[in-house]
Amino acid sequence: MAPHSPRLSGWLNVDKPPGMTSFDVVRRVQQLVGHRHVGHGGTLDPEARGVLPIAVGSATRLLEWCDTAPKRYRGQMLIGTLTDSGDGSGRVSGRSGPPFPSRQALLAVVPFLTGSVAQIPPQVSALKQGGVRLYAKVRRGRSVWPAPRQVDVHRIDLTDASGDHWDIDIVAGPGMYVRALVRDWGGLVGHAAHLENLERVQAGVFRLADAVPLADLAKRWPHVLLPAQSALTIPQRPLLPEHRRAVASGQLLSEWPELSGAVGEVALIDNDQVACVMVGPPWRFRKVFLRLGKSASEEAMKGMKGMKRMDEMDGAD
Fold this sequence. Notes:
Among the domains are: 9-69 and 205-230, Pseudouridine synthase (2-Layer Sandwich), CATH 3.30.2350.10; 71-203, 2-Layer Sandwich (Pseudouridine synthase). The protein is elongated. It is 16% helix and 33% strand. It is an alpha+beta fold. A hairpin with a 2-residue loop joins strand 10 (149-162) and strand 11. It starts with 8 loop residues before the first strand and ends in an 18-residue tail after the last helix.
């Protein structure tokens, strides 16, 4: 891999094409920017397209404070066919015939699908069970029963309809599978159903209208790399120049004028870069990024620690 810029850090708002995993995109960005430390802000299913926020360099260490939720999706629900994957790529595992439910009948069960709900992930997913990917077990003909998990679904809309096809618009928190929601939606009205043509149009501050197609990224990425702090959800304060050395050495001072009146977690910004994240008062360091006399490649060595492997994260969350 080519040497990377010492201060390379930030976000790329990528429009992921269908047919690629989120980790495929991560590997592609690693190749393009010449940096090992690349992560994403929420997995998008292989068959889906749309917004995939990509963190580069030390921005990977800021993911816990970044605005990549809620997620908004648009797609199409096909009533009458159930698949093991929950989308059109899977094996048909059930069917139902007309009469198909009306708009009124579908909307009547929406309250059971919104709010904080327990959701069973699709059988075909990158989640692990006994150390083995669920999709690998399904491909070997084994039956899998994923454990339910709590997810937040903020809003479900039906935007258009034509026979057994229904256009849907969904806003949800992280970890929610749209494939599973559609499966359960069909079940609540007594029909088989699966998801088609999923598109993520928003992930927190990242929107599809501003996303760069992956195919265009090779030429455009240096010009569309957003500052690491552009997605932060915590307050930001400028770091005083006289405190740079103290931050770089992890030295706690008796007074921090730049943190006056602040409470909780705060990011200190130095020359358009996140120098550290502090919490208090009393103030202490949560993470330090500034290193005097060292390259950002050294400070980024911790970039992937504490993060899940990108291909193990939630599905279309």
